[in-house]
């Protein structure tokens, strides 16, 4: 009994939010980046196909839960809260939060204390941190401004429509290379990124973990880090 010959490879729908360089961003109309390369490399090694969907960050976990997405590669931090709804691969990258201001600004970390407007991308750990640690504690008395995309956070910061942004440091550093913004503080949150899958998809989670282990072993992971981060 041969079922395998000529059977089409399993095709998975991958959700991402392509406003998170160098992990995922749009270049010449295509979704590219470190996470995208990782998922493509795992797919090659493990014999499946992938197609990417660029969605708002806060719709990614619900997309897994509803079954419209099979996996999420979006620099997504492994958190206890998210683990109630989805499962994660082994961690593949570590990051902290950071504070970004306009390059002309003289503010530092204290921009978060007082009557300033802070931009965040909705549903991120940065969003939760500003809400839980700053707003609830009455440390920040200005507004938290929520955006669907970091592209618009950065645009508003560059235009001085907001006073600061809180986002993952590697991404803040990447944006600061091509925009009039600068990182003025790091917030040690000790986050680890994982690829997310729906809770009942243990088979796919195993395929991802095996793939990640192979990428680390065969040097691809180091090559991709070198390609996407200086
Ligand atoms: N690492 C952050 C989080 O998981 C931000 C991810 C993102 O905006 N793509 O919430």
TrEMBL record:
Pfam families the record matches: SBP_bac_3 (PF00497)
Lineage: Bacteria, Bacillati, Bacillota, Clostridia, Halanaerobiales
SMART domains found in the cross-reference section: PBPb, PBPe
Keyword Mitochondrion: no
Species: Halanaerobium praevalens (strain ATCC 33744 / DSM 2228 / GSL)
Protein name: Amino acid ABC transporter substrate-binding protein, PAAT family
SUPFAM superfamilies: Periplasmic binding protein-like II
Domain Ionotropic glutamate receptor C-terminal: start-end pairs: 11-228
Solute-binding protein family 3/N-terminal domain sequence ranges: 11-230
């Amino acid at each position: 009994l041969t079922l395998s010959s000529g059977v089409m490879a399993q095709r998975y729908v991958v959700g991402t939010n392509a406003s998170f360089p160098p992990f995922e961003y749009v270049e010449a109309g295509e979704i590219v980046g470190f996470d995208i390369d990782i998922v493509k490399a795992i797919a090659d090694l493990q014999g499946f196909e992938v197609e990417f969907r660029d969605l708002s960050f806060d719709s990614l976990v619900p997309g897994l839960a509803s079954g419209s997405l099979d996996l999420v590669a979006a620099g997504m931090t492994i958190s206890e809260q998210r683990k109630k709804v989805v499962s994660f691969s082994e961690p593949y990258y570590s990051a902290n939060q950071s504070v970004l201001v306009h390059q002309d600004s003289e503010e530092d970390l204290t921009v978060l204390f007082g009557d300033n407007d802070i931009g965040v991308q909705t549903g991120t750990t940065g969003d939760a941190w500003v809400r839980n640690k700053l707003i609830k504690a009455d440390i920040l008395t200005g507004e938290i401004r929520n955006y669907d995309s970091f592209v618009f956070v950065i645009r508003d910061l560059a235009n001085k429509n907001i006073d600061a942004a809180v986002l993952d440091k590697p991404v803040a550093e990447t944006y600061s290379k091509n925009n009039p913004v600068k990182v003025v503080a790091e917030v040690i949150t000790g986050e680890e990124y994982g690829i997310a899958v729906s809770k009942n998809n243990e088979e796919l989670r195993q395929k991802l973990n095996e793939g990640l282990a192979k990428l680390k072993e065969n040097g691809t992971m180091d090559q991709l880090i070198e390609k996407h981060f200086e």
